[in-house]
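stage 2 :: seqdesign
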């Protein structure tokens, strides 16, 4: 991510993502449907004029955008159209407008391959609508006009935006912070549009934080999941002060419960989810990576609840998905021994927040130690040899317990 406004970004993260999670809960069963065009009633969004190319030299092919005049509630703006996005904006900051089309296209490419590079996720069927308003007041009026009574929980957001029904509703909170929120909410927007079943909240939010990291080189953006200094610093602070959430709490907590609570518990929650997805992707020599890829693919294809029910003999798989329950899904896909996994996860957090790791995070490089060094560190933290993961999904062609599952 870009850290042009680090302090501001940290203050925005908790409220933005927590209330957005309420939108995710409301979306179950509906978010994969297509979206209607924005209203064009009096006072609402107005589109007109012939398309015209903008900043052709700024946007290479994947970010090339055309523009049409657009207005909302008397505020002049434009509609930017790319291969995969229709971006409605009343923004006046030229630096943000110039970067948004390319940023969203690059973010989408990142979503499709960042974790599932061996079998990329499918692109959305049709353009996704994103609103980037120039002020919170414009954003509030837009959300009310488009969502009606459903807008009330979202209006608690003090800064940033949310995604619901496959649309993203954002407003300008500064150049760096706006892109930070856009990359997070963009994942929710994409999964709402393309996943047949929702992932449990802990994983949906964890993947969204994983997708946040990016760096700018002039007008070029590069997505690097480790390049997330805000998440890293919050994680390190929580670990050093003994305030890490136990794994059971982390994967069962509904983030909207954190609204209004004192302290930085919400920021710690998201920082730990960021670390959890990195652990599932790289920790313990990558033993969980095949199952991380599988659970994402299963949710996209509509096979997640069936798989969980088969593994854990659950009859109420519909209720499980409706409640976005995390424990059942976690045990089915990753490890049935939650406490043993938690010990290894805490050791991983200690490893990636060790002295000197911050320099690697700043560069967007992985701080994960080589296998031998990592094992020494894990053993010193756990005080004994870690237990072998008790994997939930049935394994094929496995000659010994704990071997990674083969994913076909």
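stage 2 :: out
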């Amino acid at each position: 991510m870009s850290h042009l406004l680090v302090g501001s970004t940290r203050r925005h993260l908790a409220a933005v993502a927590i209330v957005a999670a309420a939108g995710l809960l409301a979306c179950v069963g509906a978010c994969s449907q297509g979206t209607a065009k924005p209203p064009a009633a009096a006072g609402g969004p107005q589109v007109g004029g012939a398309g015209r190319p903008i900043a052709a030299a700024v946007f290479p092919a994947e970010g090339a955008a055309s523009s049409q005049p657009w207005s909302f509630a008397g505020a002049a703006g434009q509609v930017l159209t790319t291969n995969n996005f229709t971006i409605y904006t009343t923004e006046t900051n030229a630096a943000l407008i110039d970067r948004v089309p390319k940023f969203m296209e690059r973010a989408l490419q990142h979503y499709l391959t960042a974790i599932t590079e061996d079998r990329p996720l499918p692109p959305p069927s049709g353009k996704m609508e994103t609103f980037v308003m120039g002020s919170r007041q414009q954003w509030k009026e837009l959300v009310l006009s488009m969502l009606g009574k459903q807008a009330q929980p979202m209006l608690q957001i003090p800064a940033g935006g949310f995604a619901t029904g496959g649309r993203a509703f954002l407003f300008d909170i500064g150049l760096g912070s706006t892109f930070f929120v856009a990359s997070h909410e963009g994942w929710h927007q994409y999964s709402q549009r393309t996943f047949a079943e929702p992932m449990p909240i802990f994983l949906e939010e964890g993947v969204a934080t994983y997708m946040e990291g990016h760096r700018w080189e002039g007008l070029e953006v590069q997505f690097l999941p480790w390049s997330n200094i805000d998440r890293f610093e919050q994680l390190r602070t929580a670990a050093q002060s003994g305030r890490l959430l136990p794994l059971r709490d982390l994967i069962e907590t509904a983030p909207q419960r954190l609204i209004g609570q004192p302290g930085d518990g919400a920021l710690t929650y998201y920082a730990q989810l960021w670390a959890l997805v990195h652990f599932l992707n790289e920790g313990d020599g990558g033993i969980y990576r095949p199952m991380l890829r599988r659970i994402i693919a299963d949710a996209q294809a509509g096979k997640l609840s069936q798989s969980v029910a088969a593994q854990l003999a659950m009859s109420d798989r519909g209720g499980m998905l409706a409640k976005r329950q995390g424990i059942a899904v976690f045990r089915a896909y990753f490890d049935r021994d939650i406490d043993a996994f938690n010990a290894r996860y805490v050791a991983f957090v200690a490893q990636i927040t060790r002295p000197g790791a911050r320099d690697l995070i700043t560069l967007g490089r992985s701080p994960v130690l080589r296998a031998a060094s990592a094992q020494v560190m894990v053993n010193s933290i756990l005080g004994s040899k870690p237990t072998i993961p008790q994997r939930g999904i049935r394994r094929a062609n496995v000659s010994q317990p704990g071997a990674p599952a083969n994913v076909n």
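stage 3 :: structure notes
- The CA atoms of residues 65 and 82 lie 5 Å apart.
- The longest strand covers residues 66-72.
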